[in-house]
Amino acid sequence: MKKEWKGFLCGVLATSLIFGMSFTVFAETAGKAITVAYRNIKIYVDGAEVETTDVKGNPTEAFLYNGTTYLPVRGLAAALGKDIAWDGNSNRVYIGWIPETMRPVVTVSTAEEFLKEIGSNKKIVLKPGVYNLSAADEGRGLMISNINNLTIEGAESGKTEFVVDSRYAQVMNFINCKGITIKNIKAGHTPSEYECDAGVLLFDGCSDISVSNSELYGCGSIGVTLQNTNGFYGYDLDINHCSLRAIEIHDSQNVLFQDSLIRDHEAYSNIVYIARSESVTFRNSAFKNNNNFLWSFFELSESADVLIEDCRFEDNSRKTDPDWENVSFFNVGEDMTGAGSSLTVRNTIMKGNKSDLLTSNKKAVTFENCTMSNNTWK
């Protein structure tokens, strides 16, 4: 019997030579006929039998050739729970990670449509409008877990907005995700005074994250939270009006905020807090009109390595409180847990800021080519 097997063949198991009924398969790319054996081979993944299918859902079958078991690559990917894409121009098969240019693009216009489309290896374009995610927050905010290579993009800059009603729910949580891109969006809690107890965007156990051309606003308690994250790029962000702090980073590395604005926070703690993290950089960004913060403006603890470069700090004022005295604008390793932290401030303008001290730990803070004027501190 002859069968025509279209597509690619992928060897997945080494087997001994098995004798049985043979069939002829025409391998299109090789241009020659080969003789293979079908033996009703069963496939198990982690102990569970799986049935492989082609792109149309038709069953496919593994076969034997020269002592090796083969099955269609699409069936293999499906059996392993991986996405797959075929690039006919370059004759390449991609399993798992799919190049951005080959990912399907879907356009949505409602929160329900958006939630339905969340998944790996795709781009979701959101039409202008307000997307209320409260139906999915489960009291903690929208949870997006174990997703790879997902782009969430507003169709028009500044006209796509994510909100939640609960004051105790993050707008979005990304857990164990990789290759997440967010652009052209606004996100925050529905308008209110400073009453929130949850932030806007949280990334935990993630890598290769990009958030750009977006506004993250209060009354979210924290604009961006990074935990156990490797590789975060925030570009052209406007983070404003948060009630606890603008940015919080724990146990993370390779973090860059660039060309961003951190403004108008009335945080009752720090504006930026960083702990147990390295290679954290703020470049060409502005920190403006953050008033009444109670603790240090920038606080580094438990071995944090931070660079501030080509930035501006303007008109930031700490709240006067007799219970909190001699508080530094840059608090770097000034307590028992801060040993090993270091901050470099380079080519930066500081104008019209107010705190008790600039810093009380001169060994941990380095200023290089900075311009300071009209600041108030000891």
Per the CATH scheme, the topology name of the largest domain is Pectate Lyase C-like
Level of helix content?
under 10%
CATH class of the largest domain: Mainly Beta
Shape: elongated
Characterize the main sheet.
19 strands, parallel
Report the total helices.
Answer: 2
Number of domains: 2
Cα separation of the termini: 91 Å
**Helix/strand/pairing category:** mainly beta
Number of strands: 39
Strand content: over 45%
- The CATH homologous superfamily name of the largest domain equals Single-stranded right-handed beta-helix, Pectin lyase-like
| Radius of gyration of CA atoms, rounded to a whole number | 27 Å
* Second CATH tier, the architecture of the largest domain: 3 Solenoid
Mean pLDDT: 82
Low-confidence stretches: 1-25
Please tell me about this protein's structure.
This is Cell wall-binding protein. It comes from Anoxybacterium hadale. The chain has 378 residues and is mainly β. It contains two helices and 39 strands. The strands form seven sheets. It has a 19-stranded parallel beta sheet that branches. It has an eight-stranded parallel beta sheet with strand order 14-17-20-22-24-27-31-35, with no helix packed on it. The protein has a three-stranded mixed beta sheet with strand order 1-3-4, with no helix packed on it. The radius of gyration is 27 Å and the shape is elongated.
